[in-house]
Amino acid sequence: MSDSDVHVAALCGSLREESHTRTALEATLSAAGRAGATTELLDLREYNLPLFDADRDREDAGDAEALAARVRDADTIILGSPMYHGSYASPLKTAIDYCGFDEFADKTVGLLAVSGGAFPVTTLEHMRSVCRTLNAWVIPHESAIPNASAAFEDGEFVDPKLEKRVTTLGRRAVQYAAIEPDPDTFESDQNVGAQGK
């Protein structure tokens, strides 16, 4: 697969109108585009996703099937979320719950987390754990944006080093799109909730 064949999709877990997560993901996708990929921002504000119910088929859950198809078509997925209560945001959790192994297994995933305060380390850890349980290959480089209200000015990064971390994630999303996946995790055998929904 050449870099021009790579398609990178970013899932934004923030629904805020002035979302720092969305701004950072747009910078990540811009860097992926400069590296030769086609890109797409999957803005969860544009999808009707009811709370996940395992008794309801995905086809009967608003736009869940359409979203899963977009995720499935990507070569690399970037997950971006604000830190909520030490984890990632519920809109992103709902979106991931409507996906499963067909969307994530053996796929490259990049992680980006944003916090109003300290480093959103646990947010990144939780997203990484979920992705590995779905047998995705998670890029070792990840982007954390602490003190987000001070990190941007007029939609631009204030700190060039922070901007470099975010744009590096976009380049890595293209660079590692076709990497050989890891063996399945032990947890994936027990992850029956992600099958067929």
UniProtKB/TrEMBL annotation:
The species is Natrinema soli
SUPFAM superfamilies xref list: Flavoproteins (SSF52218)
Cofactor(s) this protein cannot do without: [4Fe-4S] cluster
- Which family does this protein fall into? Belongs to the SsuE family. Isf subfamily.
Which top class of enzyme applies to this chain?
A: oxidoreductase
> Which keywords accompany this UniProt record?
Oxidoreductase
**Entry-linked InterPro entries:** Flavoprotein-like_sf, FMN_Rdtase-like_dom, NAD(P)H-dep_reductase
What Gene3D superfamilies does the entry give? 3.40.50.360
Q: What is this protein called?
A: NADPH-dependent FMN reductase
- Looking at the record, the residues that make up the NADPH-dependent FMN reductase-like domain are 7-148
Entry keyword annotation includes Lipid biosynthesis = no
